[in-house]
Every structure is written in structure tokens, then in C-alpha cells.
Amino acid sequence: ARSLVDGYLTAHPEGGWLDPLSTADLLEGYGLPLTTSVWARDEHMTVVTAAGLRRLGHEGKVALKAYWPGQVHKSAVGAVRTGLATDAEVRSAYREFTRRFGTELAGAVVQPMAAPGLELLAGVVQDRVFGPLVVLGLGGTATEVLADRVARLAPLSERDLTTMVAELRSAPLLFGHNGGPAVDLAAVRSVLARLSRLADDFPELAEADLNPVIVRPDGAVCVDARVRLE
Ligand code: ADP
Ligand code: MG
User: Fold this and answer.
1) Is residue 61 classed as helix, strand or coil in its secondary structure?
2) Where residue 82 sits, what CATH number does that domain have?
3) Which residues surround ligand 1 with Cβ inside 6 Å?
């Protein structure tokens, strides 16, 4: 992780967003549960990769995300297609990306579809005065609308891990309401603890954004992660 961060900042002294491969290397090195993600460089490789990943996906389906360097939002600009079940669907989604993003397009990221669950966000932001904060909130499409989030200074204590979850307005969704099952709270706490360690080890980590982390009674998996170094 140290050599990845140093290497990036030597090549980009002004800082910036890591590409998907480096992002996965860094986060998986800290044990964060990212879904399988393969960066395919062209239409043919995308179709072949999707065929290979399909059987790992919920109901045998994959998600496809257009990739170009420096991208910030994806679904807002039509760069995310989910629930693709066949070669033909993958091919036509890739062609649509080509039409929409033109020469900027640098391939696609292929992922197995995660089983549905509650979408949370987890991340790290830097406070100018206090340093790194670990953030937990309601994620996915509800992120901006509901703005339900809590933040704590890193490093997090055991107590922080518990109180962060409890302080969300959406906490009842995690604890199980109307007789529904609770999500895997140990998996949520583990994500927060690992982000805290990462933030503590790397002052260069300007921002980490895992959104969504899809949580279910049987675990948590992140299908979208971004990391900015400075
Ligand atoms: P962005 O946040 O940049 O718009 P995401 O990669 O987060 O793009 O995708 C948007 C939404 O699509 C996610 O919040 C999630 O609901 C869904 N999604 C994306 N990838 C997957 C996946 N692999 N499995 C299941 N759902 C996914
Ligand atoms: Mg996202």
C-alpha cells in the first residue's frame, strides 16, 4: 500500500483520483470487502469478461460501468447498467457507452451483480483542523436526499464503532424493524474499523468514498469505491 501511494504521488504530485485497479489494490489490502471488479479495455474483452463473471452474480447477472480517467459520477451520466444477463445485453450496453462517451471511454468495469440489501456509504474525509474523519451514512440513491450520516475522528475506538451505527436516523433499518432480520452489524463495524486504520496510516488519503456498501443479514459488499490522494 505504501509503495502504491508513493508511486501515485510521485507520478501525480498535485494528487488526484486513483484508477479502479489501484483503488481496489489499496482497499483490499486493508481487508475492505470490494466486489470482484474487472477492467475490460474494449467491447470484445467486456463481453468475454462478463461471460466469465456472470455465474458469480446474483441471478447470473453482471453490472457494467463505463470507465474514463477522472470520472466522478457514473449513474447520473448514464455510465452504469445493472442486471445484464446475456452477451447481447452486455454488447449493446457497451455500444451505448461508446455512443455516449466517445473517445473519452477507456473501457468498462465489469462486476457480478450483488444480491439486494440496504445501501450504506462509508468513507474518509479530511477535516482541515482535526484531520481524518470516518463517515457512515445511508447510501445509494438516498445519499443526497436523506443526508443521514455520522462522522468520527480517526482512529475510531470500539465504542465509536457501536455508537456510529446507533446514531444514524436509519439505524432501525440496520437493526431490523417490523420483524425483519438485522443486517450483519459486525461486517459494518469491520468496514469502519478498516477505514479508520487506512486513514490513520495514510495522511495522503484525501478522500475515500465507498458508496454503496450493500449490507445484508449475511454480510456486506462494496460495489463502488473511489479514493483521492493528495
Ligand atoms: P455511481 O455512484 O457513480 O453513480 P455506482 O457504481 O454506485 O455508480 O452504481 C449506482 C447504483 O447501481 C448503486 O448504488 C447500486 O444500487 C447499483 N449497482 C452498481 N453496481 C452494482 C453491483 N455490482 N451489484 C448490484 N448493484 C449495483
Ligand atoms: Mg456509487
Assistant:
1) coil
2) 3.30.1490.20
3) 35, 63, 65, 73-76, 80, 82, 111, 113-114, 119, 140, 211-212, 223-224
